[in-house]
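Supplementary notes for students who missed Thursday's class. We covered one full example, reproduced here. Read the sequence, then the structure, then the short commentary at the end.
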Amino acid sequence: MKKTILIASLLFTMLLQAQQTVHIIPQPSSIEMKEGSFIIDNNTSVKFSKNDKAVADVVHFFTEYVNKVSGFTLKANQLKGKAITFNIEKIKEIGDEGYLISVSPTGILVKANTSKGLFYGVQSLLQTLPFIRTNDLVQIPGMEIKDYPRFGWRGMMLDVSRHFFSTDLVKEFIDLLATYKMNVFHWHLTDGAGWRLEIKKYPKLTQQAAWRVDSWGKPWDWAGIEFNADRSKATYGGYYTQEQAKDIVAYAKARNITVVPEIEMPGHSEAAMAAYPELSCNPKNTFAQSGNFLASKVESNYCAGNDQAFTFLQDILVEVMAIFPSKYIHVGGDEVDKKSWKNCPKCQARMKKENLKDEKELQSYFIRRMEKFIVSKDRKMIGWDEILEGGLAPEATVMSWQGEAGGIEAAKMGHDVIMTPGYPLYFDHYQGDPETEPLAIGGFNTLKKVYHYEPIPAELTAVEGKRVLGSQANLWTEYVPTYEHVEYMILPRMPALAEVLWSPKESRNWEDFNKRLHPHIVGYEQKGFHYSKGNYKVDIKPIVANNSLSIALETENAEGVIYYTTDGTTPTIGSTKYDKPFVVTTSMTVKAIMALNGKVMNSKPAEQSFTFNKATGKAVKYESVNSRYYPANGINTLTDGFRGTKDIGKQWHGFSGNDMVATIDLGAPILASSISLGTIQNWPQWVFFPQWVKFEVSTDGINFKEVKTVNNTIPVDARDTQIQDFSIKFPEQKIRAVRVTAKNLGICPAGHPGDKQAAWLFVDEIIVE
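Structure (token representation):
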């Protein structure tokens, strides 16, 4: 009998241990679950050295949270009862930010080398507690954790120039970073759309440059932004006083977050030039942000030949450095259109004096001069990867956003690098089906893409790889006007990036992350956070192969079950369950949903209409390669049955400066009497209709004859987004292949922001009937 009881007891203990799980993000370096739990109640105390203020602050942070979710007030350093102990000790291998945690039913011990490590240990403990106030038992599972970060730079950038956010909302942003052990808040304080920091020596920066006439509208369709000192006209904007900025710096510091300020130069400076036009190459009474983002389109670069411009910026940085103790000062340096310098006598004189061969070297001179000043103040300069142009400043750190090439080049030159490539770390891009997501700037950076990002490129050697300090995601806010939208764009992608940057590379597991993420999403809902359900979406993907078109349905969620319809009706869990791609033989509308545990997770089904014709599913060959930035569905985009919409980021094949010449082999002779090509014009985004489209046919797939060339009749300066099919009809005949040539405009027309730069040609589908 006793033996039976003993076996039953052991089985119960094993079952209990098996049920003990935690959902900590980022995943700790090492975690071992133990028997039992530590229960927090009114008899629980905290033990720590009151003589160490930094440790006391961490403990206070912990007890405040416990009180908020449980109502229990943990006493300090009681002699009796259970205790949660926080110790600073010398511990090898875990560094300044690592920690050790030991949890048993009788006590919890958190140890670290510094208060930073204790703070991160606290964050792991807090993730085992309820997200909101509860009357349930408050307990922390038995476990042993050894944890430390992989990278020292784990950051997020928030743009407050395009849209201003209050100090309270900035603090909420910082709280979210702290929850997931991020340690850098990159604060994009100035840009063409508004100046956001009080500078006492130059009051017009906040009197005028912080306020614009509220004519923002939809980005890319702006008529321009007027900065006006008359607040009855310029009502949109705001700025942070120096005291408010210092308060945010202190708030972030208490959460182990460094605030890195960014003061843009020499471009993206329309707001500053509106206040102080004498610092530009061509002083004007007013400056406006143009519809595109290349700053000097309105000649609003700082004049590189004017010493007053350097004095102005140095004065600003003196005040900035008095507010921000960060080792790094970010100077921007990106997207500088140098035509204003090319036409400026002062800039040309500077080039001659300094023996600079071109405007790229003038930009390098500008950046080097500013770096010399920053270094003289015992700080380090950081800039976007364009600061490589013309030669990199001696001690500069490069933030690589245009892919990874700039970062790779800088690391090989011996410079420190922060990796922040637009794909997948621009969080202003879509994260789910654009049809069901809020309007975004374009692109497609899903949760899974973020999670699978590797910050150290394979092109770097082990020594060069050590130059990669870490990574960050950037949230530009052209399309993000509210804080609710800010939350939506960073949740849950930011936790995914946090795990990339903290956890060991070899321990990252997508399926396990999904499981641990789900309780956090429940917490977001409980706290009223806005977040994207992009991870619950269904991707509807065409597969062109063997002269046929099939449709694949995919979801990033490893446990999701997909149901779909092909007749346009809304699917339910009673609809067809997806198990493999299915062939398309007629035009149809596919709708799909994803379910977890029998519950439909999509507020709106994914939906895609397919246009079926005699070219659908056939292979396409090009004479010139399309742009990697607008690949749509790959080489067979023109025959995949998808039609483009006015959202140019979706389903359009892009050619920059090149003509499109596409040949389709129909597989066998067919009867046809019409051919068409879909195109789009979006003037603000440099996308123009082709000058003409030539249609050719072949009976043998080798020799082609022209049927007709159709000229474009829409003016190149038509600024409203339009979609046009270039089409021909001809007497029915047998053909084996078609060739379609669309003539790119070549360069943007005079008067356009991209004057004399490559124009884009976008195409979507060739239809043969």
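Commentary. The chain has four domains: 19-147, 153-525, 537-610, 620-768. The longest helix spans residues 2-19. If anything here is unclear, bring it to office hours.
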